[in-house]
Specification:
The complex is a heterodimer of chains A (about 260) and B (about 300). Chain A has about 260 residues and is α/β, with parallel strands linked by helices. Chain A has eleven helices and ten strands. The radius of gyration of chain B is 19 Å and the shape is globular. The chains are: A alpha/beta (about 260), B mainly alpha (about 300).
Chain lengths: ~260, ~300
Amino acid sequence: MKSIKVKNLSKKFGDVTAVKDANVKILPGKVTGFLGPNGAGKTTLFHLITGDLAPNTGTIVLFDEDNGNDINLLNLKRHEMAAVGIGKLYQDIKIFDNLTVLDNIVVGLYNEKEKNPLWIFSHLKDIRSLRKSYEKKAIEALEFVGLYNDLGKEIYKKKAKELSYGQQKLLSFARLIGRNFDILLLDEPTAGVNEFLVKKIEDFIKETVKAQKTVAVIEHNVKVLEKIADFIYFMEDGRIEFFGKTDHILNNKEVRQRYIGIE
Amino acid sequence: MEYFLHILVMIGIYSLVAYSLNLTMGYCGLLNLAPAAFYGLGAYGFTLAMTKGNLFQLVPGLSFFISLIFAALITGIIAFLSGIPALKFRKDSFVLVTLGFQVIIFTILYNWIAFTKGPYGISGIPRPDILGWQIDALWEYLVLIVLINAVVLVFLFKLYQSPFGLSLKALRDNEIGAQSIGISARRQFLRAFTIAGAFIAIPGALYACYVTYIDPTSFSLEESIFQVVILSLGGTGNRKGPIIGVLFMIILPEILREIGLPDTIAPNVRQMVYGAILVFLMFVRPQGLWGEFKPK
């Protein structure tokens, strides 16, 4: 299992400090929730972890319990995060509009060698069977999120931009499932989706940790966090204000006043 | 009949241009304003190899192909080197950087007289001689162009369908999303830019030995815009769009010629008709006549 340790992390945008001296552990095999008002620095913290932004100070280390290896994430570029097992769901989904539903997942399954332009010319015979095996994986991921039941054979032809917002969100989940990441960072996974999909997303997160994976989730919906999170970090004004077990944080008087009370 | 064959030869040359450029413009979504510069480098690289490079005459009967490959390699290397700084940018900034390359390469071709003969141009470029088959007649040239199209397009179409092509489309649609699943934008775009540069040199070389005379004005910004317009009209990101654009842009002037406008105003009217069609198309079909991808 893998975990992430963030130490003394800070990020400034001009005069505004978005993240102040944050110390965070995303614990292995657990769901770590991030709660706080808008502008608290939660998304910036995720962006710093996944290389979307560079911090001003601090360290971010990925620890692999299975082999005892440490990887300094500050040395990695955004596309290298996937190779070390970190997957991210962005708030604005980031699907590939003009690719088919199936290709949205298949494209992430090819390894570095297979993505070399010359590779295909030495594997003209294998390409079809390789593609079939990746399609099978992609269909499994689409089945898991329920999109295959909705769309059936249309997944081969329908472009992602033709899906509804909820379906696009499920597709972005399927893309993460297809890649089988060890650590998932989910930025507001239930925002803008209906109750039925919220339940599906909760189930997906529970299944993910059951499979020895690690999940970090930014979530405004306290009811969702209550059901899925093992631990919660409460952030405000770029600072980590509270950390603890979910029930402990959600029952904390100050957290209730500052966040839940004003919700 | 000669006239008809000439039109077919030009369609063959521009089909190679369009399908090469399709890799960056359609698959990467990067608007490159320097295609004519790379097309010109192909023409000059080939010409210099054929006329000055004794080395290329070493294998009798194959100097045409060796020079063609040399032109593609040299242009590919230059495209790679220009891609390194250009691909630090996206959107408008990328367009401006490639415009810069177009201007620089054109200026070099125009002013490096010792090498390119500058505005005087290079004449007497030998017609292809392939293992004793001296290509002189138009129909022979057409056969050669069709054969080269067959080989190049099979290669490019395989590339379009390959995992590499799919990864370019993902980057085009959402660069951050594609990076988050492990696709390196810099690496894949640089590869595409290099391959497109190398392949666009081939029609450049074919053009040079077809007209047997080249000068830098054939590879100006105006030519780059013409090549970009071919793709904008036809559409990009698939196999159908580019050829539709080529047919449209090569045949349309011939149709306009038939209208019988006076010679003094005909070229200007043609330019205005192109412009008007482009404006109209951007309103009703921004992805081009048969394109898959709508530029943002």
